[in-house]
Amino acid sequence: MLAWTIYISFIGAAVLMLLPGDKPRLARRLGLLTALGGMIAGCLGVSQFSKGTPGRLDEIVNLPWIADLHIHYHLAVDGVSAVLVLLTGIAAVVGILFSWNIEHRAKEFFAMFLALIGGVYGVFLSFDLFLLFVFYEIAIIPKYFLIAIWGSTRREYGAMKLALYSFIGSAMVLIGLIAAYVVSGSHSFDLVELAKYPFPASFQNWAFPLVFIGFAILAGLWPFHTWAPTGHVAAPTAASMLLAGVVMKLGAYGAMRVAMILFPLGLQTWQNTIALLAVIGIVYGAMVALVQRDFKFVIGYSSVSHMGFVLLGLMTLTQVGISGAILQMFSHGIIAGLLFGVVGRMVYDRTHTRDLVQLQPMNLSKLLPFAAVTFVIGGAASMGLPGFSGFIAELQVVEGAWVAFPIFTVAAGLGIILGVAYTLRVMIKAFFLQNEPIHATDAAPHHFVPITLPERLGALVLLAATLVIGLYPRLLMDLIVPAVNSPLFSRMLKGGVS
Amino acid sequence: MHLEWLRLLAPETIVVVTALIVLMADLTLFRQKPITFRAAVAGMIATLGCLIAIFWLEELSVSQKLGMLSLSPLTQMIKQAILALTIFTALISFSAKFTRHIGEYFALLLVATVGLLFLISSENLLMIFVSLELLSLSLYAMVAFNKASLASSEAALKYFLFGGMAAAFTLYGISLIYGLTGSLELPEIATKLSAQTATPALFLALVMTLIGFAFKLAAAPFHLWAPDAYQGAPTQIASFIASGSKIGSFFVLARILAVGFPQNTGSAAFCSWTSGWAPILALLAVISMLLGNIVAIMQSSVKRLLAYSAIAHGGYALLAFFGTGTRAMSALMFYVITYAITVLGAFAVVAMVENGSNREQMRDFAGLSRRAPVLSACMAVFMLSLAGIPPLAGFFGKFYVFTVALSGPQNLGLLWLVIVAISASAISLYYYLQVLKQIYVADVPAHPAPLDTNVIARGAIVVLAAAVVLMGCLPGPTLEKLATAMAKSIF
Amino acid sequence: MNLLTILTLIPLIGGAAVLSLKADQKDLARRLGLAISLIALGMAAFLWFQFNPSPGTNGFAFEERADWLPSLGIEYRLGVDGLGLLMVCLSALLVPFSMLASWKIDQNPKLYFGLLLFLEAGLFGTFTALNFFHWFIFWELSLIPAFFLIKIWGGPNRTQAAYQFFVYTLVGSVAMLLSFLAINVATGINSPAHIFDFRALAELAGNHKLEPIIAKLGIFKNPSTTMTVLFAGVFLGFAVKVPLIPFHTWLPSAYSEAPTGTSMMLTGAMSKMGVYGFLRILLPIFPEQTRAMLTPLLWMAVATIVFSAAAAFAQKDLKRMVAYSSINHLGYCMLGIFATVQLTGSQMNGPLEKEAALNGVILQMFNHGLTAAALFYFVGLIEQRSGGLRGLNDFGGLRKPAPVFCGLMGITLFASLGLPGLNGFIGEFLIFKGAFSLAPGPAAVSTIGLLVTAIFLLTLLQKVFSGPLRSEWSGWRDLTAGERLTVVPMIALMFVLGLYPQLALGVINPTVVEMVKQMSF
Questions:
Q1: Which end of chain C has a smaller Cβ tally under 10 Å, C or N?
Q2: DSSP B372
Q3: Which residues of A have a CB under 8 Å from any CB of C?
Q4: pTM for the full model?
Q5: Where are the domains of chain A?
Q6: Pairing mode, if any, of strands C61-69 and B69-71?
Q7: Domain enclosing residue B275, as ranges
């Protein structure tokens, strides 16, 4: 069932591509249908998965693909994959809802969008590293076009930067993968098999950072994050939602699934260094977000900061920290999607500016109350206020950090506080008047199209997701925790000793 | 006996005969007909001849020495590939507008193919040289085919001068080798060499030969003719130089080195170089990859861009030489064949866009996706495959080559080379995306030049694109075929 | 019966209901909001009368428990003892009061009333939760409505004030959160269960088992240093909320910029969250650390009392004055709390004094909530009638046109400065009774605060209501019937508690006895 998430998305993309003429209405409906199909397949698959013994690895399909190189078409699912598949499903559907107003070359837009989604599903479900890499790269190209064609501010620059960063990252990954494959005797690309191979420590010490950073570039690891803000800003709403919501997760997922699991010894060598980078990312991203004038840049940098928590959580090498990191991936995916939806779709598409200085006099809380309320709740979630998914995730990351790097917890705390500061700042600047008399603004000079039904639906889905997970984290934790306790991970935590 | 020989050499014979038929038919029967019709007829005949040759080869399953030639299932397979590429070159030449000498054009194309076929079969240095010259001479003439264009003539002259120089180098190398070993047969050379210690003269010979081939392969720093020749030559010819002739050159180089000089590999492992052909190739590879990719970034002409990318791809392909055994050969061949298909397709799209004019700058592609979505999609496939994006053939080819290079005897010692290669390939995405950016992102200009609408050429492009996708998604069958061919070969 | 859950859900659902009204249904929004808050009050009163903790529960009643996220020791756990119940009742009482005070708000009343109800839910949750995670949700949840209440309906500097209020409080909260996470993760090391439960943690601390657990984190060589750092984090969280000087800088601007109804909630109920935190969380879980830091803490309380009184004295703005006096009153609570931490050695520092002080503290919490809210109400009325003026020297002689106004506000002022017979007296008396014997030095210095408070409150009374009536205020309206109706119940309650404190003490005392028993170690 889960494999269908991939197929449905790609088939949808192909059908859209082949659609004659440019019929935006049909295209977006087909797109939505496909995304829904993918999401439903994902949900059904995950619900089937979660009924079995926790912590196991469910095979979906395992066929020889390129027999000569022992490459298999191997899809499987464990708790971590399941969580991220759910995230992808939600992000896909909401992304399409938030793109409902795309008229320009609509069918291509939705085709690219679905191709990206298909690639993402593929990465999350691949357990053959070659396959994983293939899907990982498939996701790069649609990203480029989504931004370059439908983007805004400096779209071609942002798109190219993103594409090159991703590609350089994947080049690093490729070097590491090929080296690992050759060193292990060219027998298999299977993750589970390779993870059992005891790579020599000297090899791991250079292969780990190579692969980890290669992936983590996409996760916004400082100082390789610079694609993120420009990319997010340039991207059309749905694409920035996907970028922040899902694509950055690809990076973190790859870093965890491949680099950390294959090279546990290298991981231990580099643990502190990468944790330091992650913490710098948390604080730096937040500080930069605090002084931005462009609404979207704030959210863009906040993504860097939040992804810092993911990486920090991974580096704690504790069960609780890693669980937190995975939950944070989900949570940030939802929340960032929500915020980008508000900024890009609800606000920018109507006001055509993201300059906070220009937005403030508009008093958007009056003109677009739904957007304001959504942003307030999304902002609260983004700050890590309890009751939302971000809190329970960051809480676990910090717990892990207490065990691994007590000093960094303080920095993480600082990051949370700065997060509150910049979120509040941007909330006030974007939606509320600055201390002007309350009644003087009733005659507003601006008239905007009211928030449409698809936008409302999309926002509500995301709000519901972050609230449900925030209040009842067990829904996902019951998937994540057993997965993190599974042999694959526990071997990693023990430095390669199973 | 002679009949048997004829049977074995029938494919080459068929192609030669086809060339003659094309020439004659065009000269006698269709002289007065419109050009497009003549091109169609000539192209049909050429296609037919090549098809027959392909099917003949399919029936022919032998491993046998034949005088100066050596046939094996592997050579047959490569030949089939070359014939197929010739067919595609013919197909995209259906709408050729650059010449009135249709018969001569197709005849030369077929003669060049014959040169290639012999090149593939030969295991004798002299035979190799002769077939190489047969190929080259035809190509020189074809490059100059667009008489209306100064650039075409200039390109031909350049190509000819460099080619002549290369031939001189090769010949000099061959003569030295002959002097050292008293033989021109590759297996014999190997046995002779294994008996004696390596002398500086041998290395001089090797270097000379390799330089000659480096010219042919357009490996940097011996690449200078390539950009001009690619750009000046009619696009269909450029595509053939970049595809068919590349396969032949790489195959024969591999054969020379693997069969003739297996003892003199040397090592290019990091910080522990030893003399042999490996370090020379490593050097060539590194310079080609870096120079090709970096200079390609600055190009505004798509054909020049493809030329520099061809230089870079030559560099990647050289990495396969560092592997050992059939796997290395299989990787090399897979890489070169897929590359040939891809680049042929890319040139074909360029040909459609320029449509007889010389307008093949990036900006001439602006907004192509709105004007010709299928063509654009095919171009996207080709470009992304060249950039090495999965699941296209280019990715798997590169991946395989790199894997093979690493699993060679030097083990991880060649990692540096792979790192250079992969980094260079990461750079390359930039300029391939530039092309795609024009096609997909840029707006359609106010008065775009008309596109070539020839259905057959378009069909050929679609087939090529489909092949790139298919060989990328499912490389298994091709690899298997290569493996079985190799297993049955004496090579 | 999940009474406490229902109690929390009433304002939560009610708030959502109010928010879902149409923008032009202003009156309906107000009425619905008030009705819901009255229902909540009724529910609180019902709990008050039903409150009868069975033995063996450490004085807790209405307990509820459900699994939430067992892997992290997160439980849904509710329960109230005397302290919690009193705070619940205080919150429930203040919300309708505050709503009535805000009746005239015309800008988006449904949002205002909705937010007030959410705030109430946050308060209920905070005062009833017994598991850190659960408690923290509500602790922070209460911030958001408060932020917007200030930001949208506040005075000229509202943005700055709201921002400051939120960020300051959050810094404290984050520090506290980090500390609790450290404890939680430490309890999970080599042990099957993480612990977030306040009482379980308190029990560990009481048995001196917490420090060895924290030692497993290995942050500092000396685990007691680690404990001190964690203590500092939690302390910061509560100290900002109360606030203790020098963590108070957010308060004056927040209180003075907030609309009247919100100031009432802020001072009446939200500041109690901090004191409640000290009593329920900090002292039980970090007894030794508190004791080790006792001298600075006591003097910090004294500084809070004295400096805030002095600052209030120096204010020319009525609202700021009342704000500082609010800090001052909470300072007494802190003094009482810290005094009880003193080790009981001699006969003189016996548990009786501690019980007295703690009884006083809790009573003072309730009283201050009542009185300060009423004071802000009156200041708000003054501001409203004067068209925004609220300087100390802007008025005079208002007694003549508005005798009832003056009388009732006078009563409130006297209650605030602790006149016997009114509610303020008995709380402060008990605190000082305990503090003088437990910590005589600080207690003695604190009396300066009492004195200064009396001075500035009387100055206020005199400057505003006595003296010559200024001509521009000759048309000053007395309290309207509605206003009287609003404030009279409060004032009545001041008298009732002043004359019959047993009403509250009866509920408080068993809890206090329980606490002191825990603290004697």
A1: N
A2: -
A3: 320, 323, 376, 380, 383, 385-387, 391-392, 395-396, 398-400, 402-403, 406, 409-410, 412-413, 416-417, 420-421, 424-425, 428, 432, 434-435, 438-439, 472-474, 477, 481
A4: 0.89
A5: 3-437+447-493
A6: unpaired
A7: 2-487
